[in-house]
Every structure is written in structure tokens, then in C-alpha cells.
Amino acid sequence: MKMARRLLSYSAPYWRWLVLAFGLIMFTSLAINFLPVLLQRITDHCLLDTATPTDERMDLLLHLGILYISIAAVGHAVRYVQAMLTAWIDQKIIYDLRLSVFRKVLRMHQAYFDKTAVGTLMTRVTSDIERLQHFVTEGVVGSIADLFMLFGIMGYMIWFSPVLSLAVFATMPFLFALMYFINTRLRNANRDIRDRQSKLNALIQEDLTGMTTIQLFNREASAQQDFDDRNAKLRSAYFDEVRWFSLYFPTIECGQILAILITLAIGGMAVMQGSDVITVGKLIAFLAYVRNFFHPLGSLSDKAGSFQIAMASIERVFGLLDEEEKINDPAVPEAAERIAGTIAFNNVWFAYDDGNWVIKDLSFTVEPGQVLAVVGATGAGKSTIINLIGRFYDVQQGSVSIDGVDVRRFSKHDLRSRLGYVFQDPFIFAGTVADNIALGTPGIGPDEIRLAAKTVNAHGFIEAMPNGYDTELNERGAGLSLGQKQLLVMARALAQDPELLFVLDEATASVDTATEMLIQDALSKLMANRTSIVIAHRLSTIRTADRILVMRHGELVDQGSHDELMANDGYYRQLYELLLHSPERPANYPI
After folding, report:
1. Which end of the chain has fewer CB atoms at under 10 Å, N or C?
2. pLDDT above 50 for 587
3. Residue 393 contacts residue 387 (beta carbons within 8 Å)
4. Model pLDDT for residues 515-568, shown as the tens digit of each residue
5. Of the candidates 422, 386, 372, 389, which has an alpha carbon nearest to the alpha carbon of residue 536?
6. In the beta sheet, which residues pair with residue 344?
């Protein structure tokens, strides 16, 4: 219930509209529940009261009939307005909740995405929210409407006949106990559905992303088997849900039949015995109330089932919203008009997993405008260095500073707006070429986009595209070569005018010589007058860097210029000669 109350807290901004909706609900309940009273009067005073003249009874029948039609019409019209208002409120609540979830995802630290499958997050933002939408749209205010209707009917039933009411209500504890049992089983079934749906989505996302690898290694059969296994488990969970949910309405119907039989038995005997307490009209009206009593009760049971279905999603959605945001902005962020570009690591220790240190007691300084190359074998901690500067992760010990200010004292937005990244796997969004360069950044217009593209040698191939800068690109840039993607990403980095630049230069090893030269020229323009850190795999980059850090198993084993390190005849010289004599290096590779 705590989770449900928390979900309802999203309705607070719309409390005035909710008050209006509740007023309409009360009016509808009073109007609709008054109709059987008119049936009782029509029966007893118009149809069966033979002592009254026929003309008077006909006149009374006409007036009561008009009143019945008028109340029913107004009541149903108000119910329509109330339903539309309720749907509007509920959609507002779902909109706010969906926005909260997505904002939470955007704020989460990189380590969370390392451990959480994309398919799982997709389930939270889509399927789970859809389940909550059904519950909020039809469940919350609708349940209150049903309760008002139910209590109103119970009041009229007691007013008509306390004896019949007591007999009917005596069956309710057994009915509620059975419904509670079904609800418990239904909630467990829906928790299984959410978990298995999440696992299936994660598998689908992974397989679609890695489809080329699956087909390349003939793993289609294995992928199909994995999908079949998870799909079968999801089907089984849905069968459990249907089995328990299908018991709701038969249970309600059985309760209604039992209540009608009790009413006919007790009330019918009283009428046949000529009782003045229970007349034919009162019996007919009471039977109408019994029928109407089980309508909101059945609706509440349906909503209780929806609530159990939604509870599994509520737990998962609020579980995401309650995830700790480990990378937080300081209470009073450091503000700087412009940074000079001094980067310093001071006795930094970092581990992705507790105790498994990836960076060990690392200290170095990069002066403004310098190009720092970082070399080392795979797993040496090279990429982690630039991730720590951008606060995608925070260090466990030591500090990382820019111009003497710890990066943890900057706001994440301000810090990252000063950094430019050119990664090995350039990511292209679905949208136009211009959109991919500007990324919606204020102040980057068509002129700035074209200037950035020309500077990094991307303008030529962009202009050759069907619609130039307005050409629509597919997801992940399908149809573009690796070199073209790299140039687009470089244009994007330049358009942002970063003060610090981080480059992973391995990707261009797979492009042709002409594109390689264009990319190298673009990189040199990007790094001009900027403090730059390059995760270096290319000999040309290594030799021209102002300084080189040599990493091994997370430790800084040496540093200096290329000539200094070569003269030391140490680990760096081994790496360099390995690159120099690599069989994958083209004969015309620039060294």
C-alpha cells in the first residue's frame, strides 16, 4: 500500500480537478441510486394500489416516469463528464510519472548502465508504465466512484429492509475472503510476468544489437533456442495470470445469484404472507439494488485485479526511481567563465568493482594546450582515465582536478559541456546530419554546423548526400562508412567548442588511406590550442604527443617524450616495437 500511496501522490498538482471529479461522482451516485425508489413507488402506488382511482394512478405514473427518465438522463450525462475529467487527470499523472522515470534514467551514473540491461530499462519505461496507465486511468478515481455507488446502494438497501440487507451482507465475508485469495495469487503471477518480460526484452535487445555476430558465427539456432526458452517462461506466467484473473467474475456472479436467491426466499415469503414491511414494490426495488450492488462490487474486483497487476510494475518503477544516484552535483557548484586546461590526477585509486583496482595510485599533470598520449595494453586503465575526468565515475581515493579545482565541485552539466569526446565507436542518432552535429545545443545554427563540418573535412561527403545537411540518417548511421561516422563525430565535437578534448584514435585503423589522412588532419585541427588526452594506438600520434603516459595493470610505469622513453629501453620500447612490426599495420602507415 505504501507504493500505491506514493503513486497517488502524483495526483497532488491536480487536486482541484479531483475535488470536482469527486463532486460529480457523488451527484451521479445519488441520482442513479434514487431510481429504484421510483420503481417501488410506481409498483406500489400506480400498479397495485387498486383503492386509488385509475386517473390519479395514471397521472402519478406519468409524473414518476418523466422524473425517472430525467434523473437517469442527467445522471448518465454527469457520469460521462466525470469519466472524461477522470481520464484527463489520469493521463496527466501518467505523463508526469513517465517523465520522472526518463529523467531518472538520464541522471543515472555510468556504472548503473554497465550492470543493467537495456531491455530491462526499456521494460520500465514502456511496459511497466503502460500497466500503471491502465490502473491509474480506470482504477484510482474509478474505484472511488464505485465505492460511492456501493455505499449509496447499501444505504438504500438498509433503508428498504434491514432484515434482507443483513441476510445479503452475511454472505460478503466469504466472498471477500475468496477474492483476497485470488488477489494474492494474481499479484505473484504478475510479478513473474514483469521479471520474465524484462529478461525477454533484454535478450531481444542484445540479439538485435549483435545480429551481425550471430549470423557471422552461425549462432541462429542457439539464439532461437534462448528466445524460445524465455518466451515459454513468459507464456507460462501469462497463463497463471489468466487462470487466476478468470476466477473474478464467476466468483462475483455466484455471489449475485446467492444474494438474489436469499432475497427472493425471504422477501417472497414475506410478500405472500401479506407483510406490511416488505411490499411487492419494495421487493422489486430491493432486487434492483441487489443487482446494482454487484455491478460496482464486480468493478471493484476487476480493479483489484488490475491493482495486483499494477503492483508488480509499481514496485519496479519506484525501484528504479529509488536507485541511488552516485554521481551527484555539489550543493554549491564551482563556476568558471573559462578554464585554462590544466588536468591533474593526484594519487587516484579507482575500481569498477570493490577491491578490483583498475587505477592504482595514479598521479600526473597535463599543462594547458598539451597533447598527452596514453599507451598500454588492453585493460591497463587507459579509457578509465578520461571517464574519471568527465565524472562518468567518481574516484574512490585521491582526486582529479581541472585548473586546481576537484571535478566533483563542478556541476555535471557544466563540466561535460567543456569536454569533447571522439570515441572508437562513433554513435549516430536517427535524424538529419545537421541534428547529429548540433545535438540540439543552443547557439549552434546552420552556419556553425557548416563551419565545423568544413573544418574537419566532412563537408564534402555531406554535400554529396541526397539532401545535404538535411539528409535523414538511420539509427546508428546505417549506410555511412566508419570514416564518415568519425568525421561527423569530430564535427559534432568541434561545434560544441570544448576546452578539453579526449580522443580514442584506434578506429581509423580500419579505414582506407585517403580517409585516414582526412581524419588525421581533422584531429590535428580539433586538438589545436586545446588540452588533449589521446588513448593512443597509432604510431604517428604517439611520436608527436608532447608527453606520453605508459600504463600497465592500472599503474603508471613510465612517462616522458617519445625520444626519452625510447632511450630508457623499457616497457614503452617493447610496446612501440610491437606496434611498429604489427602485421596488421599497412605498409604506407604513417609513423
Report:
1. N
2. no
3. yes
4. 777 877 887 888 888 888 888 777 767 788 889 999 988 899 989 988 888 888
5. 372
6. 365, 401
Cα separation, 486 vs 423, in Å, equals 8
C-alpha cell at 524: 590535428
DSSP-H helix ranges across 323-421:
382-389, 412-417
Please tell me the least confidently modeled range out of 86-95, 140-149, 302-311.
302-311
Round to whole Å and give the CA distance between 203 and 120.
9
* Structural contact between residues 237 and 192, judged by C-beta atoms closer than 8 angstroms: yes
**How many whole angstroms separate alpha carbon 253 and alpha carbon 175?**
11
Q: From the CB of residue 12, how many other CB atoms can be counted at a distance below 10 Å?
A: 9
What b/e sequence results for 148-186 when a residue is b if at least 16 CB atoms lie within 10 Å of its CB, and e otherwise? bbbebbbebbeebbeebbebbeeeeeebeeebeebbebb
Which secondary-structure segment (H or E) carries 25? helix 15-41
pLDDT digits (tens, 9 = 90+) for 28-74: 888 888 888 888 888 888 887 777 788 888 888 899 889 989 999 99
Which CA distances in Å does 8 have to 187, 368, 550? 19, 53, 56
Rounded CA-CA distance 477/231 in Å is: 31
